[in-house]
Design goal:
By secondary structure, the chain is α+β, with helices and mostly antiparallel strands. It has 2 domains: 30-84 and 191-381, Beta-lactamase (3-Layer(aba) Sandwich), CATH 3.40.710; 96-186, no CATH class. It has 10 helices and 16 strands. The strands form 5 sheets. A 7-stranded antiparallel beta sheet has the order 3-2-1-14-13-12-11, with helices on both faces. Strands 4-8-5 form a 3-stranded antiparallel beta sheet. The longest helix is centred in the first third of the chain and has 39 residues, at 3-41. The protein is globular. The relative contact order is 0.18.
């Protein structure tokens, strides 16, 4: 080996070591920051993932998966991620539109199989696009765990499910919208909702997760803890992973779908959720596998409700990281809080999930999610 060649090898080795030490320093600083956040914000467990230039550059889990058994949280563990689940439903709809089985202009009455009309505006068609963007005027005042609440043939108070504004001319976040969308996915695909998502989203992207509790390894479930603000104590939330076996045994395709909660029932790890997020950041493609077109992905992300910045299961917010317009979604249920946000042009994104914390909100976001995202941004992206 010549002297010049040796110098080149040494220089290359030096760059690798320097980069490794820099990465180690970033991780060490970030983990110290996150541990301090957990102590100050009363966090049970925290799982995070950071994406940069289309790749996951950091994952870590802190705290407890299950307090009672003293089980530490790991990156393999899965959570019910709540409303981020809506994006899986919307992605499924876009696939069916591409297959020619649906249109965003379709009348929800035709799709649902019963009248879906705001009685104050009976001539205004409520479209699939309105349901996906929460502009349908439908609300959750009668609940959303069954389609019976909005079906005129099942609930005499069905009219209460509609708000005062004309469909398409206002915004109201509504879980019932997406449980209805789930039934439509079944009707048009011929597959049970949870199986459709597995076969057409999770399996192609090689992700572990799902909506059906009994189809997953129960040992991976992170216990979710509700916070009692009076006693300042956490208690397990047993309904978070309720298997609902009796309802599944008596399942009616195209109607019983809320059993799986298309609006909030996905169970997945932070790491796999980050891979799914990369697919959306890349407009439908992850590691050479495309599951929807760029046009479909853009339609999901583009603002429909201008004031709220909501598209179709994707919101655009400028108050999560100062000076950055972020695209994604949050989730909260049973004491869990989750966030999946990315910056489409700068190609970075962050996933944060906690299975229990003090539920303090600042400017519309859970404070634990906000400060954790900003810490990870400062340590790994900025």
């Amino acid at each position: 080996m010549t002297e010049s060649t040796a110098v080149k090898y040494f220089f290359a080795f030096f760059l690798v070591i320097t980069a490794s030490l820099k990465g180690f320093g970033q991780a060490g600083k970030a983990e110290a920051d996150l541990k301090q956040i957990m102590e100050s914000k009363e966090v049970v467990g925290l799982s995070v993932a950071v994406v940069k230039n289309g790749d996951i550059i950091y994952t870590h889990s802190f705290g407890w998966k299950d307090v009672e058994s003293s089980s530490p949280l790991t990156d393999r563990d899965i959570f019910r991620i709540a409303s981020i689940s809506k994006s899986f439903s919307a992605t499924s709809v876009m696939q069916l539109i591409e297959a020619g089985k649906l249109s965003l202009k379709d009348d929800m009455s035709d799709l649902a199989g019963f009248k879906v009309r705001n009685p104050k505006y009976p001539e205004t068609v409520i479209t699939l696009k309105m349901a996906l963007s929460h502009t349908s005027s439908i609300n959750d005042s009668e609940g959303y765990l069954s389609l019976d609440v909005i079906n005129p043939g099942k609930n005499e108070n069905w009219a209460k499910c509609y708000s005062d504004y004309e469909p398409g001319k206002g915004y109201r976040y509504c879980n019932l919208n997406y449980n209805m969308v789930g039934t439509i996915i079944e009707k048009q695909s011929g597959e049970r909702f949870d199986r459709y998502v597995k076969h057409h989203i999770l399996d192609p992207l090689k992700l572990y997760g799902g909506y059906c509790v009994d189809s997953l390894d129960a040992h991976l479930f992170s216990t979710i803890y509700e916070y009692d603000s009076v006693s300042r104590k956490f208690r397990p939330a047993p309904l978070a992973y309720a298997p609902r076996r009796e309802e599944i045994r008596n399942y009616v395709m195209g109607y019983s779908t809320p059993v799986f909660s298309p609006t909030g029932g996905m169970k997945i790890s932070a790491t796999d959720l980050a891979k799914y997020m990369i697919m959306h950041m890349n407009k439908g493609e992850y590691k050479g596998t495309r599951i929807m077109t760029k046009k479909s992905a853009a339609l999901m992300q583009n603002r429909i409700s201008t004031e709220e910045g909501y598209g179709m299961a994707m919101m655009n917010v400028d108050n999560m990281i100062p000076g950055k317009m972020m695209t994604g979604h949050t989730g909260s249920a049973y004491g869990l809080y989750s966030a999946m946000f990315f910056q489409p042009k700068e190609k970075f994104g962050i996933v944060v999930i906690t299975n229990g914390c003090s539920p303090l909100y600042t400017d519309g976001f859970n404070e634990v999610l906000r400060v954790t995202i900003n810490s990870l941004y400062a340590n790994f992206i900025k």
